[in-house]
Amino acid sequence: MINDTDLLAYASDSDFDDDTHGSSDNTGSEKELEFEEYDVGGSFDLNAGGAENAFGIITTGFDPLEVTESGSRIAGYITTDHRSQVRLGTYVIVPYEDEHLFARIWKLQYQQQFEVDDATEIHSRRMLRSNTTAELDYKFLAYLDPICILYEHVPGDGSSLMRRMADRIPRPNTPILPVTEKLKIQTGLNIPREGIFLGHLSVGGELVRTHASPPTVPYYLRNDYSMGDPLIFRHILVCGSTGTGKTFLTKNILRQFMSEDNRYQVRDNGDGVKKNKNPCLVIMDPQDEYSQLLEDNSELISSDEHNMNSESVRFGGVPSTKTFVARVDGQTYNGRSRAEQAEFTIPFEMVRSNSWLIAAAGLTELQGIALELLLEDYFKRPGTHTYNGFIEHIDDAGVRGTYVDNGKIHEASYDGIVRKVRNQAFRRVFDQPATPITEMLADIFKAGQICVFPTEYISNTRIRDLITLTLMTVVVDNKLNTSGDALVKETPMILVLDEAHRYLSKGAGEHSKRIISKFADAARQGRKEGLGLFLITQDPQDIDETVFKQVNSRVILNLSNDAAISAMKVKKEYEKRIPYLKKGQMIIQSPDNSDVVEVIGLSKCVVKHV
């Protein structure tokens, strides 16, 4: 019988220590298997120190090599010393004479080295008693998915590295090399070299490491005008199940937008000239967590700060954080915010152009039309317009008779409207003793300010939803309408909506229909108006399709719901990973920024997080 040592003798003139290669024969001297010398031509450096660090070689020993317009078939043999280092998704380089094939491993396979039937009862019992299988008894094959060709735009200038589609086939026996240069990875995956930091590139939950310092590869979201508008204005979605770290990650991302040198172009309505301004961050906070953006994280140590500075990661609290609290009768905000606080109320006057704000659930189509008529006539009356005044108005028997007797509104519809609009929740939120929000626009929408609107202190769900929808309406209407407030229109805005599925769901109801319509308009026009949507949800499948399809960048944490995973529409190889993502791991799908990649977020929050 031919043993491993006999086989290896054909590959080298030296003897080998059989224990090194897993043989049961303990004779031989300790020497290592070396690759046959390979000339790659030109002055190309074999990366990572040469062939001794290669995973293996491109092979045609069992399958032809081919690259076509519709796909490719490229396989490599992985040597025994490197088999434990190779994972699905590992990025590799295959050199040509003057270029490089950048690829990822999409399939791993064992094949028998010799003709033997190991699917027998005798063999299985023998292996169960004493498994003496040598690694060299099997071929370990890695199949490569070509991503691109890397080449130098200016020969000899390593900083001019560029990418094009994979249009060349590698030669047999070419080394398959690990990628240890940060620039090659960033160029190969089309990742910007600067922008909004989201995390570090990883494969299978392990950080991709290079020879740079720090060794990690940062993942940035494009945030300049070199290839169009910054991607925040084409909107971001962060989704993940409860407990996967959505708030932690979101704080880290949002903090990156709030640096003094981060400015966006907006049109000045006065002279039409574009100006550069810091963004205003408007956060709908249902769990009272985002006001902590004001404070530093005391757990950060000097080494953390050094690494963050080296990768342009912003950290530390934002002093311009302010909390805006809705005045609700019978409720008091005693939250964790240490930021400056200001109270506001929702004036009933807003209902003049937003009748749906008091369109309670269950109104029929005819009742909705009738309510519009009642409100229109009420706001034509002189004097102050309040919720209590409107209720008194429609309760008046004379007013009822005017509409019912003249056939304008059927009596059943009229009485139904009165019952549904006379709601204690509305009475507690409209026209409270505080400054109307419509008079606070200059205080809220300031460039460079974080505006947090907490709602956790409000026990009534309908009131919480009404406040959130009102604030969303204030932002969207003033941004998109030609008659909107000039200050709002001229300030770059990032509107952060936590629990987005509650307000943008596909469900029926006047509230849902109206707000979805507004957000769909905002999503379509946000790019030119300087309005970015930042949506956070655990149920992405419930977000209306008209809004969802406008979101360009999707950050996907662990999801266990099949419907939620399917809704994200990522490539199959990444879709299968989603249920196994650990806390802080994410899949990023942003077609205008990079290829689909796996990323690990920072292990520490850049601001306070408890």
UniProtKB/TrEMBL annotation:
It comes from the Archaea. Transmembrane segments: none annotated. This is AAA+ ATPase domain-containing protein. Gene3D superfamilies: P-loop containing nucleotide triphosphate hydrolases. Residues 232-557 form the AAA+ ATPase domain. Residues 13-32 are annotated as: Disordered. SMART domains: AAA (SM00382). Pfam families: DUF87. InterPro entries: AAA+_ATPase, HerA_central, P-loop_NTPase, T4SS_component.
